[in-house]
Specification:
Number of domains: 2
Order of helices and strands: HEHEEEEEEEEEEEEEEEEE
Number of helices: 2
Helix content: 10-25%
CATH architecture of the largest domain: Sandwich
Number of strands: 18
CATH superfamily of the largest domain: Cupredoxins -  blue copper proteins
CATH topology of the largest domain: Immunoglobulin-like
Distance between the termini: 97 Å
């Protein structure tokens, strides 16, 4: 017995369904192939000279904090590499600013220390502050000496979600008035081309269109440094950069 011929309508629907799946994929590949090329800058922030001493912090005023040995975080140098430096594009042909990131940036209060100590924000982005400690803190934020907020943070409290209302170029100082050694910095940009160095002093900025740029390094104790770079096309779109601070320039 011969099989019945396939229903023509069903065949047409099947073909259309395959096209509906394949067409967006093909368009996506075509768009990617013709997208404007972007470059990357990878680099290191170094500290030249003998690193400054990091004295032990006296935290006996709070028995909980005294359980954790901590040292000054003013300048942290590991094998010549500088931590807590925010490196950003100061000027250059960046794309038009996009809406602020939906996800907030986060600072944790852990072992009576702000972690991270330096963080980058995009203007309009919210900041979440968590208390992972078994002691009371307050979260006191100022911008150029003007009060942004002053909130209590008890153990096991919900995270604080804060809207800094800051503009590009602002630095939000975050302190705990109960534990004076606690100090963090939220540095605000109008773009996402920034990164903060860890103990290895490295940073990476991606998505940079070809052109001339000025990079700026910002450190809460040591100030700023600048470096001009050129992002090319193709193999010249990957650039290596080095920014440096020197001991003999410290006040």
């Amino acid at each position: 017995m011969c099989d019945s011929p396939p229903d023509m309508v069903s065949v047409v629907h099947a073909v259309l369904a395959r096209l509906a799946w394949a067409l967006p994929v093909a368009l996506g590949l075509l768009t990617a192939a013709h997208a404007d090329p972007t470059g990357t800058v990878k680099g290191t922030v170094i500290f030249e000279g003998e690193p400054p001493d990091r004295p032990r912090l006296h935290r006996e005023t709070d028995p909980y904090c005294a359980r954790f040995d901590k040292f000054s975080e003013d300048v942290i140098v590991t094998r010549g590499k500088l931590k807590d430096v925010l490196v950003r594009v100061k000027n250059g042909p960046l794309p038009a600013p996009r809406p602020s990131p939906a996800l907030p940036a986060m600072i944790d209060q852990k072992e009576c220390t702000y972690t991270p100590r330096v963080i980058g924000l995009v203007a309009g982005q919210k900041l979440v502050v968590r208390n992972s400690d078994g002691t009371f803190h307050n979260v006191h934020g100022t911008i150029a000496g003007k009060l942004a907020w002053n909130k209590p943070a008890s153990p096991k409290d919900p995270d604080l979600t804060l809207d800094p209302g800051a503009r590009a170029g602002d630095v939000i100082d975050v302190v705990c008035d109960i534990h004076p050694w606690m100090h963090a910095y939220a540095v605000v940009q109008d773009h996402t081309a920034f990164a903060v160095t860890g103990e290895d002093g490295t940073f990476e900025l991606t998505g940079l269109p070809p052109g001339s740029y000025t990079l700026e390094a910002w450190h809460p104790t040591l100030g700023t440094r600048s470096l001009a770079i050129q992002i090319g096309k193709g193999a010249k779109g990957s650039v290596t950069a080095r920014l440096s601070y020197r001991r003999d320039e410290m006040k």
